[in-house]
Amino acid sequence: MKRYLASILFSVFLLGCETENKLTFEPVQLQGEICEDCPRIDINIPNALDSSPISEAINRSLREEIISILSFTEDENIDSAEKALQSFTESYKEVIAKFPDEVKWEAEIDGKVIYEDGNIITILMNSYSFTGGAHGYASTSYLNFDKKQGTELDNWDLFDDLEGFEEYAEAKFREQEKIPQDANINDTGFMFESDSFHLPNNIGYTTEGLKLVYNQYEVASYADGPIELILPYQEINPYLKRKVKI
């Protein structure tokens, strides 16, 4: 009985430690001006609360993503999400001043933490913007961070064996998309540059496995939508720099 109780207490202790290691966030909602000649802007993102290096890195990266999506100028003074909203609004007002029949612009950005362990935290950013034309543009972005180093990670930072992982990912991609292993990667209608497989711009840790997302136009037409591939950790841990406990 004592041994059983000790086992329960140890499990509770481990769970408590794991919870303590998790970052604390608050939801932040930003909206644009509400007026007849204003675009619709709706932003929902997490905000890391403490002043640790990793929290500062996360908040900085989220701010830079918002600026990148909403700003149409090279103005270095746009250094906050609020200024980016203002820039988007002013750009729209300039357009409708010249073209009164322009369809109303809109932008939506949603961010959420989708994975966290002792080493890694990943934030998923879904965005949609419409600034005229036949249709808007939706995209998925993954922001991966090293919690101990307090830095954002580029895709190549995720791997110990990038070349080996790319070969493995290509084999799995061909299997999922029913492309023969000995055929040209574009034989079934994909548009990989130089007829050569490459990893997507967006790779993120998820609870299901490492997810690879090719956004619209990246390797296929707009009508094909995003192309996703999920690779289980038990198969890809040998390639990863930061292993995931199975």
From TrEMBL:
Q: Which residues form the DUF3298 domain?
A: 161-234
List each copy of the Deacetylase PdaC domain by range: 37-136
Official protein name in the record: DUF3298 and DUF4163 domain-containing protein
